[in-house]
Amino acid sequence: MAKTIHLKKGLDIRLVGEAALSIEPASVSDTVMIKPTDFVGIKPKTLVQAGDEVLAGSPLFFDKNNPDFKVVSPVSGEVVEVVRGPKRVLLGIKILADKSVRSLEFPRIDAQNADADTLTHYLCDHGAWAFIRTKPFDAVAFPDIKPKAVVVSGFDSAPLAPSVEFLLKGKEEAFKKGLEVLAKVSGAKVFLTTHTKANSAGWANAFSGTENVAFSGAHPAGSVSVQLHHISPLNKGEFAWYVHAEDVARIGTLILEARFDGSRRIALTGSSVNKPMYLETIQGSSMASLLKDQKLAETEFGNRIISGNVLTGDEVGQDGYLGFYHHQVTVIPEGKHREFFGWAAPGFDKFSLSRTFFSWITPGKKYALTTNMHGEHRAFVVTGEYEKVFPMDIYPVQLLKAIHNDDIEQQENLGIYEVSPEDFALCEFVCTSKIESQSMVRSAHDLLYGELVDSRKEPVHH
Amino acid sequence: MKPLKRLVENVEPHFAEGGKWRKYWPLFDGFATFLFTPGHPTHKGAHIRDGIDLKRTMSMVILAMVPALLLGMYNVGYQHFLAIGEQAAFMDIFMYGMWKVLPLVIVSYGVGLGVEFVFCIIKGHQINEGYLVSGMLIPLVCPPDLPLWMLTLAVIFAVVIGKEVFGGTGMNILNVALTARAFLFFAYPADISGDKVWISGVGEQVVNGYTGETALAQFAKSGGEVAAMGGQSFASQADFLWAGFIGLIPGSVGETSTLAILIGAAILIFTGIGSWRIMASVALGGLAMGYLLNGFSGAFPDNGYLAIPPITI
What we know:
The structure holds two protein chains of two kinds. Chain A has a domain at 3-13 and 28-257. In chain A, strands 1-13-12-11-14-10 form a six-stranded mixed β-sheet. A six-stranded mixed β-sheet of chain A has the order 2-16-15-19-17-18, with no helix packed on it. Chain A contains eleven helices and 19 strands. Helix content of chain A is 21%, strand content 19%. A two-stranded antiparallel sheet of chain B has the order 1-2. At the A-B interface, α10 and α11 of A face α1, α2 and α3 of B.
């Protein structure tokens, strides 16, 4: 019987546009783009130029801060553009994809008998290391820093998020292999978490060798840092690894079939999508290809196309590409409308954590929320809202103030190593003062991660 | 609404970056966002946001004060007519109170928001909604006959020293309304304490048996009996406590009615704006301090106030 942890705090934002549990292949993406900007704290160095032929599994770039990890191409085709921004910052590598994918054939490895180092090198060399990220910081793991735990979340609690069980359908073998590899490479306990509501059939119990922990409660129960906080809290200097469940299966495929699996299953969601559903596609595929068979709703101010979910995703637009770690695309209406005496209106159509709008009368209603801010930025006001949606034994407002004041010692005392920007997404959502707390936590983590990277460099001799 | 919206959108460029009235942007923004919610979409972070903003939050607090305000208005008239020994109809009673209280509210809002606007224009900040609550709280904690010039000074002092010097709403370490009240207490003690100020319009003409003494003063003297307050007398202690619960006793405009304040508390807790923990800790803290001082009453036999138990039923 798995351990169950009950979370009382949190909020499920009830949105229209959940993906139906049916899957179709997306129309083939002409171009795919892999974006170094999807990786935290990375200093990318490109390994290809425009005109190069690549196969699925060919390395595209590596990180100068963490040279062991390489990012490889998910498809075969021709590199058409190395996209750079101001100061020649590498923004992405665009590949014109072949109609059918040809994979680079890797040497096979005997995972059963290989030692941890050999396996680690195998994952690093063949593009699978990029799937393994660390808490804190959410950067790709350093292969030489062993974690105290590995967490694979078996559910995603974000608004309209895909069912992880459904993403893994038919990939159970590879998933199982991936879990074994993770246990061996990390030398730590692998936790597989489930939600009491989703895991009706004891899905996780089919995978031996992991410790299964069930959670109950609203979002952000699916956040790995929230789960870690209750399973194995991180102190300063400690690390945990986490891998998305579908990526665990792709690690498994690499070991089983000795090829890089660039496929990706995503949920296409949101109130502006006419047929929310799951799509079988490729990592880094274009929004144009994913939305080709959809009729987006006609709205006054247009639609916002988001790679990821509405709380933490990136606005990518019609010309954008799927993010490296995203398993969801959400399309919602833009909201630039001004409302006459909106602050005094009864607000039957306004979703709120509070009961200040009469929408409390309809507790089960689903909403088609727009991108409207519903207010202006203000100073922090003590409202108690953050604490209602933050299921950790951490003071979110005090921590944000310590970040605001650049007081690192205070941040450490208040638990900066246990939180992630995504944990603050709901705080940001419910905030009366419209404070952008995710980016505050991100900047604090960037600073601390930079210090970690610097401390790992060889001392410079003059 | 369409023409009004067009008007707002048409004059906006004049106040925006590069416009001729750029300096007065906070003034424009204050009025424009009062009329229409701002149409800003999200730019980074969460793409969708809760419907709530500071205007809505503060509106709820004002709503929660309305029962105390209305009952306060009625009670000001009620105490006045009782004290001078005249019969009056319900509406007359209420109108008398309203004409006493409304000027306090208007002066409080006018002066306070004026100071806020000046500071916002100087500093180029947006108008914050915090004063909408303070502006209502200040009249509620003042005696009904407080001269308006005193109120004006108190509001200016409170907004500047209590809030703006710290950087405005959210930055203040003092409660603005209580700063105003404290200012009045120390600057003009005769007008905000003692026996004479708690009932409006009491001159030479008072009813037989009139007493201006506060309940506390009577408690301290008699050791537990309040027989009369203002122009009314109480047959029993229960009568007095009931009048106090409903709010028909002399006092500051909004302080007398426990019932109205409890209704306000219920609104705040139900909407999720107020925290019952904070409310409960204020009440418990007051009680604990009361009992603590009670314990010292033996050491100071001359001070009758110390001997009053916090709960007497």
